[in-house]
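User: quick one - fold this with adenosine monophosphate bound?
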Amino acid sequence: MSTPATPFSSLGLHPVLLEAVHNLGYEVPTPVQAAAIPPLADGRDVLGLAATGTGKTAAFALPMLHRFAEEPGTRAVTGLVIVPTRELARQVARAVLSYGKQLGVRVLPVYGGSPMGTQLRALSRGVDVVVATPGRALDHLNRGTLRLDLVRTVVLDEADEMLDMGFQEDIEALLDACPVGCQKALFSATLPGRLRRIADSVLAEPVLVELRPKKSAAGARPDVVQIAHVLRRADKGAALARILDLEEPDAMLVFCRTRLAVDELVESLVARGLRAEPLHGGMSQGQRERVMARLRSRSADLLVCTDVAARGIDIPHLSHVVNFELPNSPEAYTHRIGRTGRAGRKGRAITFISRRERSVLSRVERAVGTKIPIVPLPTLEELRDAHLRRLKLRVSEVVEMGELDAFRRVVADLVDESGLDPMDIAAAALRALHDEVAPDESDLEVGPPISNGPRKRDQRRDMGHPQGIPWAQIQIDIGRRDRVRPGDLVGAITNEAGLSSRDIGSIDIVERCSFIEIRADAVGHVLDVLHRVTIRGRPVRGRPARPKPPHR
Ligand code: AMP
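Assistant: Sure. Structure tokens for the protein plus adenosine monophosphate:
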């Protein structure tokens, strides 16, 4: 177990900022935030040894905004963040704005390569926080278009990078232009000698924020196989679908950093036909307990959760942990993967990272003392092979079980009446079985968005729509794996909701859910009715289907 987390509310931040982080779905401060926010909000200088991925941006942005909230109203720049690259300038500016929107803070990213004119106009209208790369900031300073004489807080972000890029003189010139006594914070992943000397000369009695990950025995988990995949963000959903398809986990926890990310992922997984459920701190205790009970009784097997909500989950059959987003500290990584590989069973921990997050992964490896190999995602070819292997196994089992006389007669009839080859018949039967269980490959595509045309539909029902009636589609959470057939759905809707079969359009049954077209004016009524019935022994949950994402 990790130590109980400090709540955001204990950090002394302005209530508007507490609301902002709550609305962004942050549940608790990261370790860097818990350590750096109080001294910074208090006006102290800080030397923060924190790399990207630790939540360091909010660690300096929130106190900067806190000080802004306490003393707003100047028309001058009061906060300056100096960063090494334009990407970071844009990213940090976006973050500052997202935390400070309700305070009416005006934030401007300033970097080389973007038109000077736009920046000049914004600066002349008045800006509270400037997030700048050193060269361009100095440019503006020398032209007199950026004034730093009323700055209250300067942050040097990724200071080691800036030194490596040769920005030392520019940074010194910028610091010289700020008031002597202003608050200064320096954040850096590493502290080489050169940087230490700058820190010593620039910072006044700084509070040192340094989180040495403890190498704990809990980090070494021989019973958990740990791997990572390097992926583009847009491919993570398909990657998860591939893993689910190939590995057929008993039960899986998928981790995101925030409540919002959890909700978004659940929604996109459900749209892919996967029965995923959320677990986060924004849910009531009762809701969380119900989800946990479903996991325990195996009626739920795919939970998407935040670190806080998953704390202490102890489910022996939990076979997989997926880090859909990297955790904010190595301790959180250890804690996440510790949910699997319990009670003497083997577990698998799979971490998704972007190319830029490789360094974060290395830090996790050092902290947990385990190599986490980066391996390629399972290919579609491997998935197909796995399906065929399972088919063979299944067929052998059925042959073993016997009682095949009725089916033998069908084969004999096909041979006699249609002159078909028994090998072709067997292959066709396998194919039909395969098509029943294999997922739609368009859901598994990674890489640039590829349009694979519309999903396969049950063509028989595509005919005979009454003309001129608007149609709508509903989605329900039972599908092929529940052995549901079109007839079950038509039956439930006609018998229970009183619709005629002509009020029902095409039916598309995919692995874990089904899409049903019905008269648009009957959607509410049909959903109400379906929520009260069971189909194939299962309670049903449904909702209006969303328009398909463009890559479908
Ligand atoms: P950073 O290290 O500043 O680049 O932040 C890494 C990521 O963590 C960003 O996507 C933030 O939105 C997210 N983040 C920052 N603080 C928290 C928090 N307290 N809880 C959850 N996510 C956070």
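One thing worth noting: Residues 448-467, 548-552 have pLDDT under 50 and may be disordered.
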